[in-house]
Amino acid sequence: MKRTTSLLMLLLLVLGSVVSEARDRGCYSSGSIRHRPGAAVRPPGRPPVRPPVRPPRPPLRPPRPGVAAAIRHEIRKDVRREIRREIRHARRDRFLFLGGLAVLGAITRSLPPRHTTVVVRGASYFYAEGTWYVAASGQYRCVAPPIGAVVTVVPPDAYVVAWGDVSYHYFNGAFYTPGPGGYRIVAPPAGVIVPGLPEGHEVRGGDHVYGGVVYREVLGPDGTPGFQVVGTQ
């Protein structure tokens, strides 16, 4: 009997402890205040990264008055004056060339890109597409074709003039005949008629003079006007 009573009491104690544990599961006691577990505390996030702030640009510095400003003003004036001078020279050089030929006696600062140097009796000439030049104080002056000069080819627009048994290639006041090394400039024979004279020839009374050769205006055999060689100076 005693043994049975002891077992019952032990069973009651065990059941009481299990019921108390089930009732208080998840609760914590601290004195008379009960605390329930709250949400887990998350660590604070990183602050947003802001782009670096650039310092403002300093304002443009106004021109300094005084001597420096006066010097800069004079430099600008010189540059503008030089530009205007170059434009005037370029226009002058452009107007000197008529149909690719320079006017006799015209002065140019530079030669055409395609030119050759021809030495005649010790003097240097510059030849470019039927026009002849000589150096003149750092520039170049258009001159009459020198007698005796030899070129490899005649200008493509040369006019063929037959006189006697000889055929001349006439272009820009020059008479070319085939010879060793190409074509040689020769003195024109008296009586030959050419269709025209270059720009820059002189008019003396009824005669026309170009490169030391005297021409007279006549009608050709076919009735067209031309210029006949009547002599030399």
Structure explained in plain terms:
It is built from two helices and 19 strands. The protein is of the alpha+beta class. The protein has a five-stranded antiparallel β-sheet with strand order 5-9-8-7-6. A hairpin with a 2-residue loop joins strand 6 and strand 7.
Write the layout of secondary structure elements.
Elements: H1 2-23, E1 28-30, E2 33-35, H2 67-96, E3 97-98, E4 101-102, E5 107-108, E6 116-120, E7 123-128, E8 131-136, E9 139-143, E10 150-151, E11 159-163, E12 166-171, E13 174-179, E14 182-186, E15 193-194, E16 202-204, E17 207-210, E18 213-219, E19 225-232
Antiparallel strand pairs: 1-2, 3-4, 5-9, 6-7, 7-8, 8-9, 10-14, 11-12, 12-13, 13-14, 15-19, 16-17, 17-18, 18-19
Estimate what percentage of residues fall within beta strands.
35-45%
Number of helices: 2
Say how many strands there are. Answer: 19
Shape category: elongated
Structural class: alpha+beta
Order of helices and strands: HEEHEEEEEEEEEEEEEEEEE
